[in-house]
Design a protein that fits this description.
- With 376 residues, this protein is mainly beta.
- The protein is built from 2 helices and 31 strands.
- A hairpin with a 5-residue loop joins strand 21 and strand 22.
- The longest helix has 11 residues.
- The relative contact order is 0.17.
- The N terminus is likely disordered.
Length: 376
Amino acid sequence: MQHSRRRIAIVSSIAALCTIAAACSMNRVDQPAAVAPKTAASPAPAPAQEPNVYAAAMTDKIDPRLAGITPRVYVPNAGSGTVDVIDPATFKIIDHFKVGQIPHHITPSWDMQHLYVNNTESNTLTEIDPRSGKPTRTIPVEDPYNLYYTADGSKAIVVAERFLRLDFRDPKTWELIRSVPIPYPGVDHLDFSADGRFLVASTEYSGYVAKVDIVEMELTGQTKVGGLPIDVRLSPDGSVFYVANQGRHGVHVLDATTLKEIGFLPTGKGAHGFHVSRDTKSMYVSNRLAGTISVIDTATRRIRATWRTGGSPDMMQVSPDGSQLWVSDRFSGTVTVVDTATGDVIKKIKVGNNPHGLTYFPQPGRFSLGHNGVYR
């Protein structure tokens, strides 16, 4: 499919797009009548069940269900249609295998029993058994650019970017339950409210974030932030969504209920991906065009530090003990390992072409919300 091949070209020339997009408008909440919130279908959010939505992942202990799984870092190489498997103890590549065309992310299943390689252009998922570290089967799924799960595990959500929609599917049979059209180009990343009743998705090429009711599976609102919004992550206290904007070179802070912008943090050129520290006191932001990682203090919502890592940092994962941050370098063909105490680069590991949404597995937590490893 030409759209996915174009994505590789687009990300390679994103610097030019960023300059244009920086002029885009922001701070406006748009809710046309056609997608106005339904009061009956979308009840007011309930308080979070935990004081910290990531509370279950604030430990280095792995769930007993995952006993016997050897830690590995799985790296999807979008440009070469392969996966590299790294031993995090030695920083060595110990396996390498072909998957489908343009694999963008490797997603842990909700119950953390499988890993799924999102082969966008092949319209397939490659299932990996994390116990053997080997692919076990190929599942036909239309346009899986990204993959998420509702908090109760009842639905998988396939981000079908080139078709401008979110596909809600049965996570066991992969049968389609319902498609939700997202009328803005570039839907690609999302996160969920603290109570799991709705999600917020970025639309990279239109400058919007969209709100979707999980129960009714309907678009209920949107906010224009301008630029090129990429990753979305809920704060530990559940009160705000952070939205990384590659075109505006920083992070929007949106009220988690109204989606109104209440702050903006200039982090670095090409702000792209998020990951939460093990203690949840920090939110890591990859600045893909700057070659840096910013550290946001989640209590004060201020930038605590900026680490120069080089390369083109994209998606990230922390080690189970929280001491290392593993980062895919999208344009550099490397994975960078960073010391989270100092920000120093520990290791650069050469991998395939266009490494993207790597996952370090297994991880602490009760369940996976998907992407390349978001746990609660």
